[in-house]
Amino acid sequence: MGDQAPAIELRGISKAFGPVQANKDISLSVAKGAIHGIIGENGAGKSTLMSILYGFYKADRGEILINGQETQIPDSQAAIAAGIGMVFQHFKLVENFTVLENVVLGAEEGALLRTTMSNARRHLTEIAEEYEMDVDPDAVIEEIGVGMQQRVEILKSLYREAEILILDEPTGVLTPAEADHLFRILRGLRDEGKTIILITHKLREIMDVTDTVSVMRRGEMTATVKTAETSPEALAELMVGRKVLLRVDKKPAQPGRTVLKVDNLKVVDDDKVERLKGISLEVRAGEILGIAGVSGNGQSELLRVLGGIERATGQVEINGQQIDLTGRHSDGRSRRERGIAHVPEDRQRAGLIMDFAAWENIVFGYQWDPAYNNGWLMDNAGIREETEGKMERFDVRPPHAHLEAKSFSGGNQQKLVLAREIERNPDLLLVGQPTRGVDIGAIEFIHQQIVDLRDAGKAILLVSVELDEIMGLSDRIAVMFDGKIMGERLPGETNEGELGLLMAGVTNGGSA
Amino acid sequence: MDTFSTLIQVLDSTLRLATPLLLACLAGLFSERSGIFDIGLEAKMLVSAFFSAAFAYTTGSVWIGLMAGVAASIVFAGIHGIASITFRGNQLISGVALNFLASGMTVLIAQSWFHQGGRTPSLMGGARFEGVELPFAIGPTEAAETGRPLNQLIAEAGPLQQLYSELISGHSVLVYIALLAVPATWWVLYRTRFGLRLRAVGENPAAVDTAGISVVGLRYSSMIIVGVLCGLAGAYLATGLQAGFVKDMTAGRGYIALAALIFAKWRPWHALGACLLFGLLQALALRTDVVEAFFPFKMPVQLLDSMPYILTVVILAGFVGKAIPPRAGGQPYVKER
Amino acid sequence: MDAMPKWADMLLVPLISLLLAMVISALVILGIGEDPWAALKLMVQGSFGSTYGWGYTLFYATNFIFTGLAFAVASHAAMFNIGSEGQATLGGLGVALVCLALPWPHWTVALVAAMAGGALFGAAWAFLPAWLAARRGSHIVITTIMFNFIGLAVLNYMLVNVMRPEGSMDPASAKFPDSTNLPSLHDILALVGIPFSKTAPANVAFLVALVACVLVWLLLWRTRFGFELRAFGKSESAAVYAGISPTKIIVVAMLISGGLSGLMAVNNVMGEAERLVLNSVEGAGFIGIAVALMGRNHPLGVLLAAILFGFLYQGGAELALWTSIPRELIVVIQGLVILFTGALDNMVRMPIERFFLWRRRNAQAGE
User: Among A356, A410, B86, C189, which has the highest number of CB atoms less than 10 A from its own CB?
Assistant: First the structure.
C-alpha cells in the first residue's frame, strides 16, 4: 500500500442535530484494500458518520476525500458515483420484487427494461460466481432468508461497481455460521482490492475480521489502531472511556420452588411457519434463566406468549396453576393478574407510549388495577404522586412526571419500564433485551436491579442477543435455535465458543 | 324493441359511463402505486369538467377546452403533491380539502363568468366531442347520404354490423383514448424503467432513495400523470358525455373509481374489468325496465346505485381474495436510517 | 425536547393556518370582483350582529360540534372516520322513525327517545366498517366512504318507498307531531328573561351538544376506557402488550363516534326541519373533520372551531342573500381551512418551530 492515496479520507467532519452534536471534528483515513472496523457504543455517532459518507446527511463542516480527490457527496447518487456502496442494518429492498429487479433498480441501462434485464441477469450471475454468492435472480425477496437478502444488498453495490463497501451492523440478524460466511465473502472482496468499512458494536467481530479499527465515543473518534496490536479489553476501555466491569457482581443463586413451568410450547405464525417447536423449561424462584440465541430463533415469540401477546399451544404453569394460552382472556392483563411482569424487547414500540407522559406510562398495562381508578374514572392525581417516587427510586433523569416518554434518553426510558414492572413485585419477570440502546452507565444500574429482584426471591426469564449479558447475569443458560432449545448450560461450566455452536444449531452429535 | 338491440344499447351506455371511471381509476392506480393515497380524484375531475366546458364554450374549440381542463387538473394534483410529498401532510385530509375546494370553486367561478346559476352554457358544435365514425361503420354520414334515419339503417343491418356500428364505433375520441390507456399503463408499469421505479417507490421508498433515485421526483411525476388522466376524465364528462358543466357533475365518480381500483387490486387490466362492471351497473340503473325483465321481483334502483360500493366493501372484507395495497401507501417518506 | 411550547402548537399554528386560509379566500372574493372587506363585515354582521344571526350560527355550530366530536373520538383511536356523513344520515332516519312511531306525550320524553334512536342508528352504521377494520383489516377510510354512499341509498329508498306520505311527490317523511317539536333557544332564554330571535332554528340540541363536549372530555382524559383508547391510538403494538384488546377499542370507539354523528339529527331533523328530507346532513359530516382538525381533537377546540364554522355557514348564507356571491363561497373557505390546518400543517409548523429553536439558541448563547 504505502504511498498509495487512502481509499477514504475524512477531515474534520462535524454534524449537529439541533442541540445534539453527533459528530465532532472527525478525521479518518482508510487504506485501499483493507477491512476497517468502526466500533462504538449506541449513539456514539458511527451511523451518522457513515450516513454522511453515503450522502444521507450533509456534514456541517469538514471534507471528504475519495482516492485522494476531494469529493462532494450531497446525495446517495453522488456516493454511488464515487464508488461507495452501503449495506444498511435494515435492508433497503423492495419486498415483492425479485432479486434481479432489486439489483437493477436505479442502475438501469435505458428507459426500457427488456435489454437492461437480460444484460443485468448475465452480469449479476458473473459477479455472484466471482465472489461465491449463490443467489437465484428470480427469487422474490420476501420469500428468501435474511442471509440471502444481505447478499443481495452486497450484490447491489457490486453491480454498481462499488470500490468501497460500508456494512452497518451486518451480523445482528445472522447466525454465527451465516456471519462466518459473510466474513469469508468480505475477505474475498478485500483480496480483490475492495475497501470495506464494518460498523459494529461487537468486539469479537472486530478482532476476527478487520485489519484496522477506529473507536468512536460520544461523537468523537478516540483512536485508530491496527487490529493485530490491540485487545478486546483495550478496545472496550476506549469505547467507554473507563474500565468496564465485563462481569456483573452477584452472589450465587439460591433457587427455591418452581415459579414457571413451560411444557411443549408451540407457536405457528400467520404464514403457517412454526416459530416455537415444543419448548419446555422451568424457572425457579430466586434464579435468572438466560435465553441465548441469534435473534429470530423464537426467543421473541417465547416472551410474547408468556406475556400474553401471542397465542400458543402447550402448557404453561405459573406457581403450579395452568394459564390459558388461547382463550378470549389470554392477554397481557390476565398475565399481569397472575403475577407476571414483562419488560418487552422493544420499549419504544411496546413498553411505552412515546407520546404519553411519564405518569401515564407508569401505570400503562396496569390501568385496570383498582389502585388506579374507581371503576370508571382514573385517579390521575394519585398516579402522578406515585410516579415521582418511582422515578426517584429508579434514578430516572430528569425526574419530571409530566414529561413525555419520548423526551427521555434510551436508558431512562428503560428505567421507567423497569420501575413500573419491578415495583409491581411480580413472581416472574420476563425481560427482553434489557440494555439494547442503553448507555453503559445505565446498563450497570439495570443489571443491578435485575439481580436485586432475583435476590428478593423472584423468578426471572432473561432474553438477550448479547452473549456477554447472558453470561454475566444468568444462573442457568438455555440456548435457542430455530424454535427449539438446543441445550442448557451453567455459566461457570461453559464458554462463548460452546454457546456459539449451540446458537448455530450444532450439538455434540452434529448439526440439528 | 328486440332483446339484441336493447343489449347493445345497454352495453353502449356501459362503455360511455365506464370511460370517466376508467380514466380516473388509472389515475388512482398511478397515484397509489407511487405511494400517494388520493381521495381527491373527484376534485380533479370536477375542475377539469368545469374548465374544459368553460374554455370550450368561450373559444368554440373542444380541444382548447380539453387542454384547459387537463391543466386545471394538473394544478390540483400539484397541490396534493405539495401537501403530501413536500410537506408530508396527511394525504386523506388533503384529498378531502381539495374535494371541497373544487366543489365550491367551480360553481363560484361559473357564476362569476357566466351568470347562469353556477353552470356553463350548453356546448354546441365544435365545443363538444363528437362521435368518431370508424371505417365501415354505419354512422351519421351514411344516414345523411341516404337520407334515411340512422336507427332504421342500423336496424336493417346484420347483427355483427349492428354490434360494430353501435357499440364499437361512434364514441368520442376520449373513449378510445381511455381504452388505449389500459395497455399503455400496463406497458409503462411493467416494461419501462419509470414503471419499475414507480412500483418500487410505492412499496419501499427507502430502497429507491438509497439506490440514488429521487423519491420526490418520482412521486411528483406520478402526480402529473394523475392530473392528465383525471383531466381527460373530467373533460369527457362535460364535453363528451354531457354538453356543459353543472354543479357537482362528477357525482361521486371519483369514489367509484377508487372502489374500482381496490376491486382491481391495483392492476391495469383488472381496472378495465372493474370499471366496465361498475359502468354496467350505472347503465342498468338508468334502464330499470331491462333489470325488471331479468329479475322476477322489483329491484330497487337504489340497490343498483350502491352496488359498486357494496361490492367494494365485500372485497375489502377479504371474503373474495385479499386486496393488498402498495405497502408504502399513505405514508409520507421521511428519510431515516 | 419539544421544538416549540405547547401554546404555540395549540393556538399559534391553527390561527396562522386560519389566517392563510382567510387571505386566500379574500383573494378569491377579489377574483370574482367583490370586496372582501365588505364581505367580511356582512358575514360578521349577519352571523353575530343579531340574535337572529346568532340563532343560525349556533344552529349550524351544533351540527358541527356533534360531527367534530365524532371525528375527534375516532381520531384518538387512530381511526380516520370519514363516515360521519353517512352515520348522521342514518341518525336522521333513527330520529324520524322514533318521532313518528308513537304519540309522544311531551318533548322531553321524545327528545330522550330520539337521541337514543339517532345514536343507535348512527352507531349501527359505523359498526360494520369498525368490525371489518378490527377483524379483517379493511381500510376504515374506504369502507366508511362506501358506507356514506350506501347510507344515502338506504335513506333514499326509505323516503321514496316507505316513509313518504301517500299522495306526496316529495321524497320526504311526514311532518313530525307537534309534541316532538323541541323548544328553541328563544323559548329557553325567555325563561330567564333574555330576549332571543323567535325564528332562528337554534334549539335545545345546542345544550345537548355542550353536554356532549364535557362527556367526551371526561371519556378521553378521565376514564379508564379513554386511557386505553388513547394508548391504542398512539401505539397499537404497545396496547397489545398492555393487554388492551384492539377489537374492543376500534369497535367501541367507532360506535361512540357513529353515535355522536347520529345525535346530530336531533338538531337538524328534529329541532329544525321537523321531518326527514333527503340530504339533510348537507356535508356536516365532512365539516366535522375540519372542525376536529382545527380544534386539535380536543372538545374545547371542537366547540370553538364549530362556532367558527357556524359563523362561516351563516355568514355565507347572508352573503348569498345580499350580494351576488354564491353560497358556494363557504365551501371554498371550508376547503381552504381544511387544506391549511390539516394537510399543509407542516408548512405552517416548520417555520414556527425554526423560529422557536432560533430563539432558544439565542437565549442560551446569551446566558
Answer: A356
